From TrEMBL:
A biological-process GO annotation: maturation of LSU-rRNA from tricistronic rRNA transcript (SSU-rRNA, 5.8S rRNA, LSU-rRNA)
Domain Brix, first and last residues per copy: 28-238
Family that this chain belongs to: Belongs to the RPF2 family.
Skewed-composition ranges (Basic and acidic residues): 236-259
Pfam families hit by this protein: Brix
The keyword 4Fe-4S appears for this protein: no
Subcellular location: Nucleus, Nucleolus
A GO cellular-component term linked to this record: nucleolus
Entry keywords, A to Z: Nucleus
Domain of life, per lineage: Eukaryota
GO terms of molecular function: rRNA binding
Protein name: Ribosome production factor 2 homolog
């Protein structure tokens, strides 16, 4: 038998519990790293992605020579960094003559590469080029709207895959309840062709409309860019089937004498055993019972008294 080592440090145990599989997973963290060569465009984009995902992102600034996402054997270091930082999303940038300003967005399952999308960055505009009121800057922890415009996101396989990856990258933590005050920005993705998507980041400005519902305006705050899809890799069937598994609910125990009606709802039958009244014990010191017995005894004496005297006189 293999010996399983367990930690005795409570702080380490809490961290391990956070990384353990859960029925309802928490928000996904993003790992940002670069290859051997980078460009000014990619460095600026990494800084702004890290700023927009502050608190849920980890950035590595050191160059990595042995990371090649689409090649066999070039994903080992990437999976190691994913396990080390507990990140299930990653953004990897590299720059070369063949693929300038190249950006790879991917997801991992159980710290193994799940799927990949490679895009080229064109017409990049950082946040500094947009002039807007600083009050409209996105707040940390706010939730964004994500809008996908164009039929390509429903018909083209590459854009459908890119849409899934961008949703995981931009939406943040999934919550059940949401305050409308926290919705202060929007990402607008427009499919301009079968392999090109225009992505921009806008802030929401509320203005008076004369009614209770305010009028909303979009103010572009950046960054904005064109994403040109170059390569993409879908997950294999075995890994996809494993990642889609959910916990099997235990079958409910059958309830006896219970039925359901569309009108009355749940209807049940209650079993009541026969009541044996003769075996019910009576209290020993019941005043009412004693009084009744005493009155019956007195009535019996009064009835028998005169008759006995008359019998004596007749006998004489």
């Amino acid at each position: 038998m293999m010996k399983v080592k367990t930690t005795t440090n409570r702080r380490i145990q809490r961290e391990l519990d956070k990384r353990a599989p859960k029925l309802v997973e928490t928000g996904k963290k993003t790992l940002i790293l670069q290859g051997t060569k980078s460009s000014r465009t990619l460095n600026g984009l990494f800084t702004e992605i890290y700023h927009l995902k502050k608190g849920t992102a980890v950035r590595y600034t050191r160059k990595n020579d042995n990371i090649r996402p689409f090649e066999s054997g070039g994903e080992t270091s990437l999976e190691f960094f994913s396990l080390k930082t507990d990140c299930s999303l990653f953004v990897y940038g590299s720059h070369s003559k063949k693929r300038p300003d190249n950006l790879v967005i991917g997801r991992t399952y159980d710290h193994h590469i799940y799927d990949l999308v490679e895009v080229g960055i064109e017409n990049y505009k950082p946040m500094d080029l947009f002039k807007y009121d600083k009050k409209l800057a996105p707040q940390v922890g706010s939730k964004p709207f994500i809008v996908f415009v164009g039929e390509g996101f429903e018909n083209v396989e590459e854009l459908k895959h890119l849409k899934e990856v961008l949703l995981d990258l931009l939406r943040g933590e999934v919550v059940e309840r949401l305050s409308l005050v926290g919705l202060d920005r929007a990402y607008v993705c427009t499919a301009t062709s079968s392999n090109r998507v225009f992505l921009t980041h806008c802030a929401l400005r509320l203005k008076k409309s004369g009614t209770v519902v305010p009028r909303m305006e979009l103010v572009e705050v950046g960054p904005s860019m064109d994403l040109v899809v170059r390569r993409h890799r879908l997950p294999n069937d075995g890994l996809k089937k494993e990642s889609m598994k959910t916990s099997i609910d235990k079958p409910k125990k059958k309830e006896k004498n219970v039925s359901k009606d569309a009108v009355q709802g749940k209807i049940g039958k209650i079993y009541i055993p026969d009541q044996k009244v003769g075996e019910i014990p009576l209290p020993n010191k019941a005043k009412g019972v004693k009084r009744e017995r005493r009155e019956a005894k007195n009535m019996k004496k009064n009835a028998n008294g005169p008759a006995s005297k008359k019998q004596k006189e007749d006998s004489k």
